[in-house]
Structure prediction request, 164 residues.
Amino acid sequence: MNKKTIELSFEVYDSIDQLSEADAILLRQARELTTTAYAPYSKFLVSAVARLNNGKIVTGTNQENASYPVSICAERSLLASTGALFPKEPLEAMAVTYHNLNADTHSNRPISPCGMCRQALVETEVRFQQPIRLILSGMEGEVYVIAKADQLLPLSFSGVDLLG
Ligand code: THU
Prediction:
């Protein structure tokens, strides 16, 4: 028997002020965008803002539905619109943030993408053979920076497995 260990290492910043300007621009815009999320059921407003290789900025917000499972997360709404509008353009970095209207808290702890979004992010990294840098935060406070989305999905399944 062999034992294997997979480690996750990422950067933690006290606030947006410590980020590089390139990362701060994405997070700042994501924080402004939460107000446009369509989340009347959960009241948990999520937004994502990404920079593509060509420098273009793309955005996504969660889009809920009265039939709850039809809803889509901010990250996957961004990936879907990017795939449609810029089918050849890899993503360099994506900031994700949220505003939880249910809580008296300040939405000041980073969230990280759900399992389904992690799978979608890995698909995009494999598709373009390029890491997506994740900048995860809330409306204020700490920011996590993860160099490559697939670090969040160890032993992931991808198209490579389908080749046999
Ligand atoms: N949600 C996202 O959009 N992204 C995440 O990373 C976590 C959860 C959405 C899904 C649903 O509309 C609401 O947040 C509450 O789960």
Summary: The pocket of tetrahydrodeoxyuridine is lined by residues 39, 42, 44, 46, 62, 64, 71, 73-75, 111, 113-114, 117 (CB under 6 Å). The mean pLDDT is 97.
